[in-house]
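Researcher: We're teaching a course module on how sequence relates to structure. For the next exercise, students receive a sequence and then see the predicted structure as tokens, so they can try to spot secondary structure elements on their own. Here is the exercise chain.
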Amino acid sequence: MGGFTNSEDEVIVDFRPGAKFPRLPAGKLILVTNPVDPVQLEIMHQLLEGGCQVRAAVTFCEPAEWLDELFDRFHRNGSFRRQSFVYGRPGYQLNWRHLVRGCHGIVHQTVVPTRFDTIEQLWRQVINTTAGLLEAAEREENMESFVHTASYKNAAPIHTEKDLEVTAKSWHVPVLWAGARTPGIPAVVRASCLYRAEQTVWSWTEEANPKFRVNTIAPSNVIGHHLAPDYMEPYWNDWLHDMYRCRGIAIDYVEDAGVLQRHWYIDVEDVGRLHVAALFDHTIKRQRLFAWGCLRDRNDAIQILRAHMVERIKRRGGTMYDQEKAEEAAAVHYPDIVGDTIGYGQTYTDTTNVMDIFERWKGFRGWKAFETSVPECIARYEQILAEKAQKGAQGHLSYTNGRDTHDINELLPFDTGIFVKLEPPPALKFTDKDGGW
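Model: And here is the predicted structure for the students to work with:
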């Protein structure tokens, strides 16, 4: 039996044969903020399956009752609880004190308000909220660890002309410049707020020297199984879903798409596992972990989509199946994306510390393979579409992907020949002078 041991007699993680999740310290209470985010959902899922208790902090204005249904088994036995609070109002420090009471750990992801007067005011609110949560954690006698979900944009540009090594000391300051110059673009404003939040975590930690462990984890492009497609926008890895149902066309408006993306892909299970490890592994202390995953481009996904289509044709064709014709049809259906290669300079980072963590917490050194994650995503898409098509047969049913609303008949699997043309919003264009976005 392998595992990580906190002391001579306490086993924190036990790699039992056939066990899907490691055994965590029973009954530990973990506060999770922004729990409706897909990454946070996966973290809560792993914590609950591992035997921990979870307190999900949601704002009063956020309809999140569906979380009780999603985690029904744990909600019924008392392991999962939602707790509402008022975000950003005077006295929010008291809200945090109330939320962290009795907690042994915190997984925090910044919530960026959508309404603000000036970017400086918004930054101040994010800074105060982050520092307030840390101060409340310091007052809680049971607190052992604080894990902050950060953004890879905090450390490096998406596009770089030359190869760039990213380290724990890397900070991409132009993210702030872009937020100050273009306060009307939500994605840019959000990126600047995430920068301010992580900056606050480390500056506060250095000054306060808290008794609990502090770590940040910055995932790259996250793909993989979505736990709650019935309750929220299901396709958070939009580029892959759009390729699946739009004949592989590269959609330029997808954030970080094409030559402007960093080409690192990590499965959500690995992101969740790193967060859980950072919570309970006492050797992980004050580390800035970059969870980047596998280096691929979108044509690698195209090859998987083609193989999937060929397999579907084979299943339906029976004795009439023609391998050569099936491959030709798949190549036409999912053409190569011209120019979508790993060009320009490449950003990279030393993942030795992450691999060391995986060896203890997964039993092997390595990421979940891109070639495993993408087929799982495709299977999930088809399951969702089949369920929606079945409901649609009983009456009119529409579906929204966050940008467009369509009749369900437009979203049937590819072999119906029906596809949706998506009109892109105005593209974001920044020069190298603006920070290389």
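Model: If you want an answer key for the exercise: The first strand starts at residue 29 and ends at 33. The radius of gyration is 22 Å.
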